[in-house]
Amino acid sequence: MTTTRTTTPATTRTFPEGFLWGGATAANQVEGGYLDGGKRASIQDVMPQGIVGPPVSEPTDGPLNLKHDAIDFYHRYVEDIALFAELGFSVYRFSIAWSRIFPKGDEETPNEEGLAFYDRVLDELEKHGITPLVTISHYETPLHLAKTYDGWVDRAMIGFYERYARVLFERYGSRVKYWLTFNEINAVLHAPLMAGGIWTPKDELSAKDLYQAIHHELVASASVTRIAHEMDPELKVGCMVIAMPAYPLTPDPADVLKVQTFERSNYAFGDVHCRGEYPGYFLRTLREEGVDLEITDADRETLTHTVDFVSFSYYMSVCQSADPAKQIKGEGNIMGGVPNPTLPASEWGWQIDPIGLRKVLGDYWDRWNKPLFIVENGLGAKDQLVDDPGAPGGKTVHDDYRIDYLRDHLLQVREAIDDGVNLLGYTWWGPIDVVSASTAQLSKRYGFIYVDRDDSGSGTLARYRKKSFGYYQGVIASNGATLDD
């Protein structure tokens, strides 16, 4: 008897139709022009070493601050957006500099020059058919608000932020569908100045003031979500958190419990944004730290206005141990955690864990059942620009390590989608080289586009396409099919 075998052709695995592909930047890391067009200083302008060093008293004090000029997107946005369009972006995440719109932060009237600049940015995005995803506050609280009010410690910040957001919705609401309230809001636990505009030094900041600032940010986020929906029900507002999954260093149940405690400190922010109230474990933390938050009935009602989607950054995972002798913070990690002995690390000590991204997507989807959006994922590395007669501009970077990182993470993203996760899109962090938030360096490069400027501030600012530029371009054009090549 002869058996005839039939072979089913392999199917090409692509991402869902309408999946948004793109990249993400922050105003303070790309724009430059820090006092142009009526803008005044933000907290970033007194952080010349990023979060690894102390702030200076005024923007002109201390060593060079690369963020003052950054990569000059303020003057080169037309060129840069054209490069994003060449990559095939369907979405571009960028932030609006609060101090361009309200230079001090507490004025009654916005700065028209600042508003007009973002009109022009949106004009270019529309010209190329790129959907904007706008972060309202991305680590750039106006310096005046930090010094005068101690940032988000003061309840007055809620009103200033509401006024600012309302101006943005009125001006751009017909052009921008997707909004994020705060960048990596859970980072305030570890970097109070950068994420909360809190001028009091971290080692002098009381638990009461820190948690009160967190509460004010959460209320402001929910209030702005409500305002957006009242102004236009079609607007989609999301929260944004740092995703950092943790694994127990050993199978010891105490290590497993340590993981739960660590992850809950991050989950709490998403829980409030998605469920509209503080979770019991967070309230227990407040009790045990002796913190009695000032929460009004109006605050509680405001918090019930939940987000439409959850967005997050993902760069690394960590381990946790209940043994104090083993609980040693890894290099480059502001949030704590033990390095995983099974994983490689970047040049800055960030451990590379593609499977961790799939874990995050599954955990967040199961926990909140809201659409997700990966709005930061990338690899910082020391790139070498080399001559290449065949490359546009005659120079390129052979960054196969970045291609490997991108491919390995996107393969895990596709697995998560196949698991049933509702994922709106993916924006690579730093599609063009940016000034690093953590170290304020340009040598920590993320981009598919190389910018000719170094840590001393020297360079022509010319743009060059890296090898990864063509790779990501192909991934987008094929809607992910080339990941299997």
Automatic annotation (TrEMBL):
Keyword Hydrolase found: yes
Q: Which residues carry out catalysis?
A: E376
Which InterPro entries does this entry report, sorted A to Z? GH (IPR017853), GH_1_N_CS (IPR033132), Glyco_hydro_1 (IPR001360), Glyco_hydro_1_AS (IPR018120)
Q: Which PANTHER family match?
A: 6-PHOSPHO-BETA-GLUCOSIDASE ASCB-RELATED (PTHR10353:SF122), GLYCOSYL HYDROLASE (PTHR10353)
The superkingdom listed in its UniProt entry is Bacteria
- Record SUPFAM superfamilies: (Trans)glycosidases (SSF51445)
Q: Which terms does the UniProt entry file under GO BP?
A: carbohydrate catabolic process
What family is reported?
Belongs to the glycosyl hydrolase 1 family.
> What are the entry keywords?
Glycosidase, Hydrolase
Give the organism the record lists.
Kineosphaera limosa NBRC 100340
The gene it comes from is: bglA
Cite the GO molecular-function annotations of the record: beta-glucosidase activity
Question: Which Gene3D superfamilies does the UniProt record give?
Answer: Glycosidases
Q: What is this protein called?
A: 6-phospho-beta-glucosidase
Q: Give a Gene Ontology cellular component term annotated to this protein.
A: cytosol
